[in-house]
């Protein structure tokens, strides 16, 4: 039976997880987006810089694809837009900042890494991930278990490589105006790590972009408010 979705060509979709996140970050989205084309969750475990991680993903990616990144995944997505913009048909930046780390932020990241390497990694994951959620979700045991499981999957070595890549990332703000593909910029209304003003900054700089702010949502939007995120992503994929 013909549906509205049949009007749109099949588009491969590449999704990039955030710091200490595995493919499970996008579990609620895979089924929702699969009708639009094959969905791949890229690995961020290979490479020690944003440039290397992006290049590794590009080597494995389809010739042309829609690109989704959350948090660190958004940083990688912006690096992909610098390396191979002609291969990206659409861009979605979730819970992302285009700014580089300040010296204070870099120091905090290295302090957290040192704490993880010198103590209870699992306990640290539980503590930190809880703080990134919306207050209404911090007692959700299922969400906590998923976040801890993802962090353990990435592991300490992966955490260290990812941390250094994030600290060394470029300032993406000067490049935003050159992004011409349809772009979705999405953030939780209570994201403590990448507050909404950072997404507003990105959306204002990308010419063909739409800003979506998800209510009652922290930094883990795809898992905290999966239905709202799915609606936004479907609308983005269906947009002309």
What report would you give on this structure?
With 240 residues, the protein is an alpha/beta fold. It has one domain (4-101, 165-238): 3-Layer(aba) Sandwich (Rossmann fold), CATH 3.40.50.1820. It is 47% helix and 13% strand. The protein contains nine helices and six strands. The protein has helices at residues 27-33, 50-60, 72-83, 103-118, 121-132, 141-167, 196-205, 221-224, 226-238, and strands at 13-16, 39-41, 65-70, 88-94, 183-188, 209-214. Strands 2-1-3-4-5-6 form a six-stranded parallel sheet, sandwiched between helices. Helix 2 packs across helix 3. The two termini are 22 Å apart. The mean pLDDT is 94.
Strand-helix topology:
Elements: E1 13-16, H1 27-33, E2 39-41, H2 50-60, E3 65-70, H3 72-83, E4 88-94, H4 103-118, H5 121-132, H6 141-167, E5 183-188, H7 196-205, E6 209-214, H8 221-224, H9 226-238
Parallel strand pairs: 1-2, 1-3, 3-4, 4-5, 5-6
pLDDT < 50 stretches = none
Please name the fourth-level CATH homologous superfamily: Alpha/Beta hydrolase fold, catalytic domain
Radius of gyration: 17 Å
β-strand percent reads 5-15%
What is the total domain count? Answer: 1
Number of helices: 9
CATH architecture: 3-Layer(aba) Sandwich
Helix/strand structural class: alpha/beta
Largest beta sheet: strand ordering: 2-1-3-4-5-6
> For this structure, what is the CATH class?
Alpha Beta
Q: In CATH terms, what is the fold-level topology?
A: Rossmann fold
Task: Summarize the main sheet.
Answer: 6 strands, parallel
Shape: globular
* Average of the residue pLDDT scores: 94
Helicity level, as a percent range? 40-55%
What is the string of helix and strand elements? EHEHEHEHHHEHEHH
C-alpha termini separation? 22 Å
Oligomer: single chain
Q: Say how many strands there are.
A: 6
């Amino acid at each position: 039976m013909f549906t509205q979705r049949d009007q749109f060509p099949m588009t491969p979709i590449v999704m990039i997880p955030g710091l200490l996140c595995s493919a499970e970050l996008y579990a609620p989205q895979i089924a929702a987006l699969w009708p639009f084309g094959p969905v791949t969750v890229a690995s961020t475990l290979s490479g020690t810089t944003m440039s290397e991680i992006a290049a590794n993903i590009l080597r494995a990616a389809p010739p042309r694809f829609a690109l989704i990144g959350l948090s660190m995944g958004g940083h990688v997505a912006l690096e992909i837009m610098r390396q191979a913009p002609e291969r990206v048909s659409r861009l979605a930046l979730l819970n992302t900042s285009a700014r580089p780390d300040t010296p204070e932020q870099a120091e905090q990241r290295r302090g957290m890494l040192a704490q993880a390497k010198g103590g209870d990694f699992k306990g640290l994951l539980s503590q930190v991930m809880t703080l990134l959620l919306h207050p209404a979700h911090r007692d959700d045991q299922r969400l906590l278990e998923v976040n801890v499981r993802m962090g353990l999957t990435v592991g300490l070595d992966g955490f260290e490589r990812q941390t250094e890549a994030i600290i060394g990332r470029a300032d993406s703000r000067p490049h935003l105006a050159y992004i011409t593909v349809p772009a979705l910029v999405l953030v939780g209304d209570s994201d403590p790590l990448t507050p909404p003003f950072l997404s507003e900054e990105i959306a204002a700089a990308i010419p063909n972009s739409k800003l979506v702010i998800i209510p009652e949502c922290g930094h883990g939007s795809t898992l905290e408010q999966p239905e709202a995120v799915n609606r936004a992503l479907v609308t983005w994929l269906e947009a002309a």
